[in-house]
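Ops channel
N.P.: pipeline sanity check, posting one input/output pair.
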């Protein structure tokens, strides 16, 4: 029965890992249509979205079965298991784990620092250690480009066969600082998982610390039958959480992720999954301290451990780092556009306000990955580090697109209809006279006015007394919604003659 449960756990874990990963890789929108709920069920997004039903489900699941969330639902936890599995290949490495006392001071310190940074307005920096956010950055910055390059290879091959089953997509670096954070996170996770299995989950991860407190009181627990155990230590050598002291029959339930490897590998049938009994609490309670010798002589009153929870927001940002070259008629290379220095960042429609966005965003980069117009990217500003923002060098925010709001699991970008989007003002256009072609070159243009979807730009004579004089754009800021069509399609290079300034608080008309 237990072996069957372990197989079911592996199947469900594989499903969640593939499903969440597809959300960051898919650029067609199909994955989000069917699998968006797998992101919403993650602990931190549910907390920031104040999704009470999901939070109650996760708490009840932990109180029933322990930290199965970490080994089944969390994509970062499953990724560590995959790395650990590869790291354990080979006869010499199959028995590489051993029991280690809990680093309680480190777990508490990281959790307290995590909470303080959020409450102090540094949520974007705190999100660096958040599990779902970390995996999102790794998937969107490292896995997604490889996936899209593979798609482009298939698209090129299909084109030669006169097939349009695939189509090419742009592959570009949206933010160098965020890319570096993703690389460093992956390297750290890889080293820790390869060498020690669940080291990250049980020493650094704040979600693991919170759920670890609850798992001490779970109804079903792993139990060692001392009458059958011969203290061979095989369970300790197979435990990737390093939470089993087989020689002294001790299990640290705050670190156990219910992978059931110990049950599967015990050759004497001494380890079982049992229901907790009131008259046997001492047999199932965690008996460990930072000093292993103390753990052998007496149990520790674990109810004194502090449990810290918080509702916080992760903020992140990004900057344009690279663009592909475009050509005019296949002949002259067009100079790349450079992002203007905006006084106020531009947030996607539905973000509502700077405050709301910064208090609900997990910086997972899911909206950045899903944006089909190349408008969203993480900020490099240290004040809003990794928080998504909009810039229009590669495209503009099309009125018919609501992809970012559709995929956001925390309501940092609230769901919005196409009709609501067409009347939501996220910014306003600003004209730069010296960059405008009619003024600088004395030629007619009007590209901004022709492509403005809200009719906020009108062309008027530069000389009010001469109707035949060159015409320049005039912006009606009350009608401008800040979509960026004017900025993106302006022919001036490298800086557009018209650009968008964001609004601290979005409004409608």
């Amino acid at each position: 029965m237990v072996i069957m449960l372990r197989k079911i756990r592996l199947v469900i874990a594989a499903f969640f890992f593939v499903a969440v990963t597809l959300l960051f890789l898919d650029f067609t929108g199909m994955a989000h249509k069917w699998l968006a709920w797998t992101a919403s069920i993650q602990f931190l997004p549910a907390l920031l979205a104040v999704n009470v039903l999901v939070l109650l489900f996760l708490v009840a699941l932990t109180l029933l079965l322990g930290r199965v969330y970490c080994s089944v639902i969390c994509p970062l936890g499953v990724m560590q298991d995959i790395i650990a599995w590869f790291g354990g290949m080979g006869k010499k490495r199959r028995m590489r784990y051993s029991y280690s006392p809990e680093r309680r001071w480190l777990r508490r310190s990281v959790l307290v620092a995590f909470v303080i940074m959020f409450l102090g307005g540094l949520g974007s920096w705190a999100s660096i250690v958040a599990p779902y956010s970390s995996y999102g950055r790794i998937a969107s910055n490292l896995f997604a480009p490889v996936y899209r390059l593979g798609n482009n290879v298939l698209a090129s091959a299909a084109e030669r066969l006169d097939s349009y089953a695939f189509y090419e997509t742009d592959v570009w670096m949206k933010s160098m600082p965020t890319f570096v954070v993703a690389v460093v996170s992956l390297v750290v996770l890889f080293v820790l998982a390869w060498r020690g299995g669940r080291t990250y989950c049980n020493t650094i991860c704040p979600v693991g610390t919170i759920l670890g407190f609850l798992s001490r009181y779970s109804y079903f627990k792993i139990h060692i039958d001392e009458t059958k155990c011969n203290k061979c230590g095989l369970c300790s050598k197979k435990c990737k959480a390093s939470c089993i002291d087989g020689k002294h029959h001790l299990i640290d339930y705050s670190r156990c992720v219910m992978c059931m490897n110990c049950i599967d590998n015990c050759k004497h049938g001494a380890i079982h999954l049992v229901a907790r009994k009131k008259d046997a609490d001492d047999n199932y309670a965690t008996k460990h301290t930072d000093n292993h010798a103390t753990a052998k002589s007496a149990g520790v009153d674990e109810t004194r451990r502090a449990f810290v929870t918080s509702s916080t927001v992760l903020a992140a940002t990004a900057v344009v780092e690279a663009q592909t070259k475009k050509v005019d008629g296949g002949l002259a290379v067009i100079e790349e556009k450079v992002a203007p220095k905006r006084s106020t960042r531009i947030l996607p429609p539905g973000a509502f306000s700077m405050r709301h966005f910064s208090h609900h965003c997990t910086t997972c980069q899911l909206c950045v990955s899903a944006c089909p117009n190349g408008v969203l990217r993480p900020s490099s500003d240290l004040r809003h580090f990794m928080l998504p923002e909009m810039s229009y060098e590669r495209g503009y925010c099309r009125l018919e697109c609501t992809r970012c709001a559709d995929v956001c699991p925390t309501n940092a970008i609230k769901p919005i209809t196409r009709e609501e989007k067409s009347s939501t003002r996220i910014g306003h256009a600003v004209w730069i006279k010296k960059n405008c072609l009619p003024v600088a070159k004395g030629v007619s243009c009007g590209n901004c006015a022709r492509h403005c979807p809200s009719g906020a730009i009108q062309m008027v004579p530069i000389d009010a007394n001469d109707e035949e004089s060159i015409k320049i754009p005039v912006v009606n800021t009350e009608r401008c919604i800040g979509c960026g069509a004017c900025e993106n399609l302006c022919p001036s290079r490298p800086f557009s003659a018209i650009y968008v300034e964001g609004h601290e608080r979005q409004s409608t008309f």
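N.P.: looks fine end to end. The CA atoms of residues 282 and 299 lie 8 Å apart.
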